[in-house]
Amino acid sequence: MPSIFKIKALIACLLWGSAFVGAKIAFQFAGPILVSGVRFTLAGLLLLPVIWLSGIKIRNELKHWRFMLLFAFVQTFLQYGIFFIGLNKVPGATSAIIIGAGPLFVAIMAHLTLENDKLSLKKIAAVALGLSGVIFISLTKESSTIEYPNFYTGVILLLLSNIIGSYTNIMVVKRKKSTMSPILLTSFANFTGGIMLLIVSFLIEKPEIKIFPLQFYLSIVWLSIIPAAAFSLWYSLLQNPEVKVSELNAWKFFVPVTGCILSWLVLPGESPNIYSITGIIIIIVALWLLQMRNKYNFQSPK
Predict the structure, then answer these.
(1) Long-range contacts: 211-217, Cβ < 8 Å, 24+?
(2) Does the residue 300 lie in any domain?
(3) Residue 81 counted as domain residue
(4) In total, how many domains does the chain have?
(5) Where in the sequence is the domain holding 151, given as residue range(s)?
(6) Over pLDDT 70: what percentage of the chain?
(7) pLDDT band at 202 (very low <50, low <70, confident <90, very high)
(8) Is residue 12 included in any domain, yes or no?
């Protein structure tokens, strides 16, 4: 993968890694669905000046409206609605590690749906190793059932969010030959999905209309910048014919590392332990194996 692609992938993953801390701060003042809805609605609006300055012909893009609407529902409403609910039920560092296993799900999904991105023995070994890391963290988390009584429900929700997220990557890859703008797709999906989440929030969470502390607004602004920037970069890479979805997603091993370190530094009551450190090491090894070239002809038999 060319260096410029690697830089874009790294920036996107570092941004995503910082979302865990921002979300945990926002959860102190509002429910997870409301936070998610406000975040994505604002993220969609933040990209409008970029769309205007880029000279994107919105009228020409409307021919993709059915796909963009479906994508908004699956990617923003389902994936991130489930993600934020699950995130509220587990420690920030643990959620970062579980979401960081996303490339393993993408590798499986790509094998099942794409002709040029099949599983090899190397990928199968990486998937098995990475999933064992996720299971290890989930089953051995100290005091999680005390501080987080719905810990295991949160783990299941985060894994489900991973699966849905893998499918959304495939959705974009299958549209490579279209002229759809990744920036417009990001803006539309964020804004439309955000509105859907806000409607659900008012029906389920019934949030109070009040003035929040400055800390809440700062976290929301940062959370809104993340999807606006990261997804625009990511979708532009997915639409490039030189990029394989499984290899690109291997870069997401930076997400749990960044998320864990920031959680330990910023969030009270969160600190590294033998289980989280072991989980990070296992998943990084798995993703390194997934990205490693076939130097030793480590391929599946034909």
Answers:
(1) 212/29, 212/30, 213/29, 215/25, 215/28, 215/29, 216/25, 216/26, 216/28, 216/29, 216/30
(2) no
(3) yes
(4) 1
(5) 3-291
(6) 86
(7) very high
(8) yes
